[in-house]
């Protein structure tokens, strides 16, 4: 059983290292809007209820394994620090052994905005440097609309994003997002999607 070690002090978001290459900027904007609407007390609650899980890696750097969108939204909203919780300390590992372990544990998602796998060396060094993947935003919108259920599978939304990427043209997602969301809902209810985490389509 993994024991998390909460660090009760705040850590600069800019010092955190991402373990994925992209975010959905529509998702980021939605979280940023929620943050701005919250008062000081509610913002404190958000930070307290969303401690960022990290892996402590080589040179004692902290690698984020969840809440990338929240961290990006907080940066853009002017919040500079978050509380973190250390899932496991791997600082004693050499760099290549660290990344092999991260990959095999499902804590790494080195896929670019076109859904192509890259090496860990291509990962951005800062949360602010992650690229936009419109299909990740489409997957997030689909989940909120009830197209699939929230699931504990690592990077579940990215699996949905890749599924949608192969079936809906980029121009439609970028220029006609709501129409693309309708297309995504139809696809999500089909048997073609029944292998994906959280699928809740029709059952015979």
Q: Span from first to last CA?
A: 38 Å
**How are strands sequenced across the largest beta sheet?**
1-5-3-4
Q: Quick one: CATH superfamily of the largest domain?
A: Conserved hypothetical protein from pyrococcus furiosus pfu- 392566-001, ParB domain
Average pLDDT across residues?
92
Q: At the first level of CATH, what is the class of the largest domain?
A: Alpha Beta
Structure class: alpha/beta
Q: In the residues, how many domains can be counted?
A: 2
Please name the CATH architecture of the largest domain: Alpha-Beta Complex
Question: Helical segment tally?
Answer: 8
β-strand percent reads 5-15%
Shape: globular
Runs in which pLDDT lies below 50 for 5 or more consecutive residues are none
Task: Give helix and strand order, one letter per element, not per position.
Answer: EEHHEEHEHEHHHH
Specify the biggest β-sheet.
Answer: 4 strands, mixed
Helix content: 25-40%
CATH topology of the largest domain: Conserved hypothetical protein from pyrococcus furiosus pfu- 392566-001, ParB domain
Using only CA atoms, what is the Rg? 18 Å
**Would you report the number of β strands?**
6
